[in-house]
Every structure is written in structure tokens, then in C-alpha cells.
């Protein structure tokens, strides 16, 4: 044992050297008289060469290989093993030294760069050129002046283009100096123009707008400037690049510009998207939360999948009874711009089809017809294969901000109400919903309470949920158009003193279809929850264990989920059938099931539900017809208030939702109820129902405020 330990120490002392001198490391084989007594074992130069050659081939030889190598060079297998261990240790030590030196060099370079940057900051100079540096964040007044300057520049360019067009179109004898001609109204295509001239004028307008749209959709900096919340259009850069801007006449007073762009992947085929976007009915169905209604006034030219120009009118809404709906007249032009790439562009025809571009136009006419004017906007679709498309969506518009309630102005300015992010997020969610709808797979639940259901039953549930959402959107944001309907503004409140909750509720009553006396009461209100992220409110409303706190249909208790199907990749997007302990009124009491759809993205979250008798719901789940099922949906729409910077919703309920920014929520609550045996002239019965529903909404609002720990609630 002592002899072996002596040999180990001898080999270790001999071969362990961490200097960079290769000749000294393993070749200290000179036999001096003094050292010979201390080191009894030495390696000859031939042995060192053989060992190094073997190390180059394999630095971890096994025992037979070591024994064979030792027999070849006159060493024991154990001696060879010790040499290889020492050699590996030396190589590792050298690698550590080299890595340390590289880290020191990198640290020195970073230190020098840091010092130069500190000098630049202290001297307020540019790092690349050494010149004076413009402040990164301009004062608010300077930013306002810059925006105003850009707006005036755009108005000047449009006025110049309009003037040149009028001068070119007028006969030489009728031409006047610019000061006189500039006050003339825009030439109307519809006045004194033939059908062919009208179509040619619209085609030229569409082609010019398409060029500008492709510029907006494909170019980056300096046309689009990065911001903490995404991108911002540089109007100065846009005016430089858009050499032939599409003109719409003068920008009316009170109008502001919005420009947003968003890019994302959509699960769909190019051909399906083109057909959906060019068919007015299907386009409206794909965006039920944005498009209230659309009318196609006929195609100007083209076929179904080829380049096509059509004149359309659409009404857009936001999920709240407060903002007015937008009505726009526009051309839709779809065109193949490259292999596997299509563009679908919209541009307003205001100033093209009528004298609305003139300063002398009637102010009321301008407000009614140009509440929103689309500059070249739309989507660029690129086929990515495997059933996916890359979508670049652009919204560039002018709208009358004076008609927008003050509380909703930050939301619209942020682009999350009707901007590119809202359109793209809605398209992604709807495509995911349709993929689940047409799939033959039936999800199975994880608990014993989940009901068995067929593929036809799943389809019936999803289609019924779609119809429920359409009715809900109409009840919240739809105009009152039915002849028998009545609109009331009802002040509702609950509680007293500091705990008092107030809300201005919109009450609408109309006759139920197929009934002589029954009235349907639809009530809705919107409140602002400052510094309360929308995801907090959405998570609370989707919590089945706490549903009894705010939902009268839950009878103060938790609800049980009988069936659920996920309709999107974000956690919370699902259609479910839930069971409560509530019974229908009357002698023939029946159990009530709740059909609910919850959907969320960064632009909007909704939780919509409708109570149905168990027999009707079971019939639909078994594949029965759902067309005759009468729905009175209630629910919530949660919009961001436009003050926060958070752009994307969490992907799971476990993701933290912080309060480190100013993000708040605009919460819209809606409730529908049947007033049996009532009539529009029965004011006493209606007043009592209004009070009851108003208190119900205020009670739910009070519970939500306490659950999400909102400090204040402000009626919209």
C-alpha cells in the first residue's frame, strides 16, 4: 500500500504543471543526481511521445487499452492511468486559464464602452457623430405641436392634389387662379357622370390607394417608428414616401388621425380568407364584435378570386352603449400582389362620391357622412403553408373625436378599440373557433360531472353560442330600430353613503317575437375601473366557485360544469354548459342550465351566458335542432381603458397580473329579462322592473369591485 501511494505521489508531482511551457510539463526526464533520489520513476521521451499520441486518439482509454499501451512502452497499466488523469487535469486547467483571459479581455472592452457611453450621456452628445442629442421624450406640448404640424402638412398636400385635379378636369377657358379654385367643392362622380366614367374614377382611386396600402404594410423604419406599445406611423416620413397621396378633401375640424399596424399568424387558407373578406355576409359573421352590419352595393369589376373592386357600407361598434357606432362608405379592393401573397384594401369614397371635401360643405352633412374616413387600410395575406397564413393588418383612418365620449378617447387612440390589433386578434380567435366547430373530435372532461356528448351535439352547442354572442352584441351596442321599442336612461344605485354605487343604465324594451303582450327588457351600463387590469376582472368572472357572489342564476352557490370545449389557444376561451340550483318559476318548475361563452385577447374579453331549461339544453347536446331556442343572453364585456402599456393577455390563468402600470378596465354589464303580461303603456310595471334590474347590475358591480380590489368605480 505504501509503495503504491509513493508511486501515485511521484507521478502526480512529476506530471502536474500548469505553466504554458510544453517542454517542461511532461518531459522533465533529465536524471540529475540530486533529483534522482527524490523521484524514483521517470518517463523517457519515447514514452511521453507514445502517451501523447494515444491521448490525441482517446483521452479516456479503457483498462485493456491502458494495459496494451503500458506493455508497448514499458509501463504498468496503473502508471498509464495516472498519466492520463494528470494530463486531463492539466488540459482542464489550461482551458480555465484561457477562458479567464478571454473574459478579462471582454470585460476590459465593455468597461471602455461603458465609460464612453457615460461620457456621451454627461456631455449630451451623439455616440456615433458627436453632435448634440435630441431628448428621447419630448414635452407633451411639443408632441402636440408636432402632431398638429403633421396634420396641417397632410391637409396641405391633400388640398394641393385636389386643386391640381380640379384644374386638370376643368376646360381651359374656365380655369381660375388657385385662390378662387381652391374654394370650389370636390367634383362628384355621381353628378352628371356616366356609369363608365364613375367606374373608371373609382378604379383609379382604388389603384392609387392600393399603392399606398402596400407601402404602409411592407415598409419599416423610418416610416414606422418603434414605441413601447408597438409601432407609430411617422406622418412626415409617410408624406415623403407617398408621392401621390390619395386625397379625401379637407380634413374636417375635430377629426384626428389614427394609424396602427399588427402582424400575426392565422390558422386558415388564403383562398378561404379571400372569399370571407370579399363576401359581405361572411365578413360580418367573422367579426361580430366589430362589424354591426354591412351592405355591398355591387362590384365595380373583377371576379370572385381575381382582382375585384366593390363598393360597401359598414357600421362598426364597440362593446358599450356609450360610444356612437361608426358608419363608413368605402371601396374594397382585393388583388394578388405576388406569388402566394394577396392584399385586401379598404379606402373611403368620401370626397369622391359627393361634395364632402369642401370647406363650404354643410357641417351637419360632414358629421353624418364622414364620422370616420378610411385612408388606405386593410390586410396583406401571405401563404405560409400547412394551413397557416401570415397577416399584416393596417388601419389608417380619420375620425371625429368630438363625437366620442371623453372616457373612451384613450381607448380609441390606442387602437385597441377599432385598430389593427383588434381586427387581427378577432380574426385569429374566430378562425380558431371555426376550426373547433368543424372538427369531428369531441373533447372529454377530466371530472366525473362532465356529460357525454356527440360531435353533432358539440356543433349544436357551438352554433347556439355563436347566436347567443350575436344577440348579446346587438343588445349592448345595437341601435334602437324596432318600431315597438322604447329607450330609457335610468339612474340606478345600490348601497348608502361611502358604499353607494351609481350607474347610468340604458333600458330598452321591445315586444318578444311571436308574443302579443310579453316585453323583453334589455339593460346595459358601462363603468370605468382605473388601475384594474382587464384580465383580473375576466379571471374573477370565469371562476365558477365564486359565481354565486354576483349571478342570481347561481342562487348564491358555485356552479358545476357539465360540458366544456376550448375554443382558442389562450386560457379561458371556451364554451361551456353549467348546472345551477335555480328552478324556473311556476307550478311546473324545471331545472335551469347555463350556456356560457368566454373569450379573451388583449383587445377585449367577454363572458356571456344565457339560462335555458334543462330539456331544451339536453336536446341540443344530443344533436337536436337549436334554431327555435329563444335566447336572452346577459354578460360582461371588458375593454382596456387605453391608459396601460400591456399589449398581450396572459396565456394562462396562473400567469401573474400586476398593477405596475396604469392599465384600467372599461366594464360593460348587460342583463336581459322577460316582462310577462306587460305592455309599453304600463309605465308602473316598467318602472318597477327598471329599479329591480338596476339594483341587480349595481349589486354585481359592487361584488366585482370588492373581488378585484378596485379603489374606485366611475360611471361612463
TrEMBL record:
Compositional bias of kind Polar residues: 1-10
Biased composition (Acidic residues): 12-31
InterPro entries from the UniProt entry: HD, HD-Zip_IV, HD-Zip_IV_C, Homeodomain-like_sf, START_lipid-bd_dom
Record-level Gene Ontology MF annotations: DNA binding; lipid binding
Compartments in which it is found: Nucleus
A GO cellular-component term linked to this record: nucleus
Chain intervals for the UniProt region annotation (Disordered): 1-46
Predominant localisation class: nucleus
Family: Belongs to the HD-ZIP homeobox family. Class IV subfamily.
Protein name in the entry: Uncharacterized protein
Amino acid at each position: 500500500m505504501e509503495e503504491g501511494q509513493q508511486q501515485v505521489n511521484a507521478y502526480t508531482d512529476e506530471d502536474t504543471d500548469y505553466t504554458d511551457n510544453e517542454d517542461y510539463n511532461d518531459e522533465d526526464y533529465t536524471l540529475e543526481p540530486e533529483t534522482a533520489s527524490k523521484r524514483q520513476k521517470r518517463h523517457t521521451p519515447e514514452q511521453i511521445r507514445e502517451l501523447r499520441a494515444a491521448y490525441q486518439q482517446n483521452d479516456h482509454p479503457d483498462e485493456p487499452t491502458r494495459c496494451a499501451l503500458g506493455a508497448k512502452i514499458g509501463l504498468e497499466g496503473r502508471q498509464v492511468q495516472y498519466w492520463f488523469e494528470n494530463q486531463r487535469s492539466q488540459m482542464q486547467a489550461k482551458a480555465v486559464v484561457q477562458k479567464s483571459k478571454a473574459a478579462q479581455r471582454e470585460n476590459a472592452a465593455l468597461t471602455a464602452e461603458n465609460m464612453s457611453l457615460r461620457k456621451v450621456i454627461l456631455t449630451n452628445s451623439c455616440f456615433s457623430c458627436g453632435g448634440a442629442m435630441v431628448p428621447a421624450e419630448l414635452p407633451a406640448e411639443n408632441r402636440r405641436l408636432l402632431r398638429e404640424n403633421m396634420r396641417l402638412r397632410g391637409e396641405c398636400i391633400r388640398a394641393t392634389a385636389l386643386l391640381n385635379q380640379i384644374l386638370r378636369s376643368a376646360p381651359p377657358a374656365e380655369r381660375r387662379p388657385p385662390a378662387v379654385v381652391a374654394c370650389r367643392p370636390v367634383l362628384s362622380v355621381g353628378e352628371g357622370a356616366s356609369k363608365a366614367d364613375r367606374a373608371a374614377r373609382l378604379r383609379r382611386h382604388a389603384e392609387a390607394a392600393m399603392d399606398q396600402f402596400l407601402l404602409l404594410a411592407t415598409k419599416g423604419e423610418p416610416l414606422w417608428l418603434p414605441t413601447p406599445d408597438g409601432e407609430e406611423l411617422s406622418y412626415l416620413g409617410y408624406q415623403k414616401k407617398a408621392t401621390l397621396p390619395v386625397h379625401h378633401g379637407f380634413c374636417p375640424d375635430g377629426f384626428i388621425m389614427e394609424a396602427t399596424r399588427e402582424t400575426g399568424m392565422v390558422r386558415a387558407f388564403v383562398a378561404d380568407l379571400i372569399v370571407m373578406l370579399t363576401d359581405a355576409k361572411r365578413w360580418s359573421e367573422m367579426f361580430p364584435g366589430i362589424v354591426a352590419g354591412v351592405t355591398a352595393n355591387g362590384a365595380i369589376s373583377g371576379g370572385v378570386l381575381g382582382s375585384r373592386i366593390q363598393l360597401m357600407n359598414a357600421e362598426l361598434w364597440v362593446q358599450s352603449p356609450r360610444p356612437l357606432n361608426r358608419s363608413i362608405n368605402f371601396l374594397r379592393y382585393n388583388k394578388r400582389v405576388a406569388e402566394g401573397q394577396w392584399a385586401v384594401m379598404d379606402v373611403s369614397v368620401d370626397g369622391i362620391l359627393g361634395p364632402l371635401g369642401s370647406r363650404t360643405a354643410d357641417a351637419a352633412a360632414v358629421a353624418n357622412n364622414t364620422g370616420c374616413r378610411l385612408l388606405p387600410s386593410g390586410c396583406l395575406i401571405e401563404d405560409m403553408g400547412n394551413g397557416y397564413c401570415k397577416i399584416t393588418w393596417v388601419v389608417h383612418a380619420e375620425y371625429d373625436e368630438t363625437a366620442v365620449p371623453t372616457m373612451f378617447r384613450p381607448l380609441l387612440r390606442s387602437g385597441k378599440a377599432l385598430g389593427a390589433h383588434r381586427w387581427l386578434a378577432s380574426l385569429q380567435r374566430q378562425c380558431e373557433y371555426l376550426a373547433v366547430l368543424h372538427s369531428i373530435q369531441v373533447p372529454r372532461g377530466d371530472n366525473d360531472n362532465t356529460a357525454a356528448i356527440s360531435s353533432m351535439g358539440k356543433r349544436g352547442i357551438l352554433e347556439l353560442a355563436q347566436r347567443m354572442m350575436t344577440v348579446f352584441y346587438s343588445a349592448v351596442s345595437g341601435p334602437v330600430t324596432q318600431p315597438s321599442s322604447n329607450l330609457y336612461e335610468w339612474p340606478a344605485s345600490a348601497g348608502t353613503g361611502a358604499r353607494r354605487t351609481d350607474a347610468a343604465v340604458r333600458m330598452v324594451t321591445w315586444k318578444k317575437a311571436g308574443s302579443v303582450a310579453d316585453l323583453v327588457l334589455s339593460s346595459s351600463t358601462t363603468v370605468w375601473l382605473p388601475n384594474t387590469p382587464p384580465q383580473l376582472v375576466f379571471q374573477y368572472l370565469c371562476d365558477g366557485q365564486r359565481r354565486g357572489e354576483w349571478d342570481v342564476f347561481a342562487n348564491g352557490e358555485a356552479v358545476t360544469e357539465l360540458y366544456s370545449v376550448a375554443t382558442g389557444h389562450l386560457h379561458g376561451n371556451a364554451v361551456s354548459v353549467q348546472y345551477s340550483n335555480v328552478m324556473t318559476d311556476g307550478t311546473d318548475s324545471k331545472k335551469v342550465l347555463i350556456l356560457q361563452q368566454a373569450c379573451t385577447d388583449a383587445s377585449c374579453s367577454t363572458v356571456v351566458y344565457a339560462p335555458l331549461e334543462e330539456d331544451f339544453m339536453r336536446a341540443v347536446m344530443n344533436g337536436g335542432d337549436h334554431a327555435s331556442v329563444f335566447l336572452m343572453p346577459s354578460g360582461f364585456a371588458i375593454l382596456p381603458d387605453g391608459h396601460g402599456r400591456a399589449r398581450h393577455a396572459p396565456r394562462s390563468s396562473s400567469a401573474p397580473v400586476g398593477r405596475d402600470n396604469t392599465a384600467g378596465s372599461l366594464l360593460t354589464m348587460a342583463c336581459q329579462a322577460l316582462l310577462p303580461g306587460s305592455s309599453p303603456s304600463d309605465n308602473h310595471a316598467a318602472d318597477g322592473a327598471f329599479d329591480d334590474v338596476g339594483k341587480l347590475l349595481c349589486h354585481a358591480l359592487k361584488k366585482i369591485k370588492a373581488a378585484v380590489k378596485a379603489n374606485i368605480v366611475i360611471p361612463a
